[in-house]
Amino acid sequence: MVEYIYGRRKELQVGEFLERRGFAWDRAAGSKGPIDLTAKKDSKYFAMQVKATRKDFTSYTKLSINEEDSLIKAAKTLRAKPV
C-alpha cells in the first residue's frame, strides 16, 4: 500500500508538471494497467507509464520488455505516443 501511495504521488507530480506546461492530462483509475497518465496539448497526445524510485539514480530500463510492449500497444489504440 505504501508503494502505491508513493507511485500515485509521483504520477500526480508528473501531471502537475505537464499542466504547468499547458497540457490537459488525466490519470488512469487505479493506474494498474500499462498507461498511468494521458496528456494532450494541441495535436500532441501522449500515453505515459510513470515509474518512481527512492534511489539516487535511475535507468531508462525501468520498464521490462513486456511492460514496454503493453504500453506501445495500449498507446496505439488511443492513437497516442507512448512515453
Say what oligomer this is: single chain
Number of helical runs?
Answer: 2
Strand-residue fraction? Answer: 15-25%
Q: What is the terminal-to-terminal distance?
A: 25 Å
Classification by helices and strands: alpha+beta
If strands are numbered along the chain, what order do they take across the biggest sheet?
1-2-3-4
The pLDDT mean sits at 87
- Radius of gyration in whole Å, from Cα? 13 Å
Percent of residues in helices: 25-40%
> What is the overall silhouette?
globular
Q: What profile does the largest beta sheet have?
A: 4 strands, mixed
Count the E strands.
Answer: 4
Series of secondary-structure elements, N-terminal to C-terminal: HEEEHE
The low-pLDDT segments are none
Task: Provide a compact summary of the structure.
The protein has about 80 residues and is an alpha+beta fold. Strand 2 (about 35-40) and strand 3 form a beta hairpin. The chain contains 2 helices and 4 strands; from the N terminus they run H-E-E-E-H-E.
Question: How would you describe this structure to a colleague?
Answer:
With 83 residues, this protein is of the alpha+beta class. The chain is 40% helix and 19% strand. A four-stranded mixed sheet has the order 1-2-3-4, sandwiched between helices. β2 and β3 (44-48) form a beta hairpin. The longest helix has 19 residues, at 2-20. The mean pLDDT is 87.
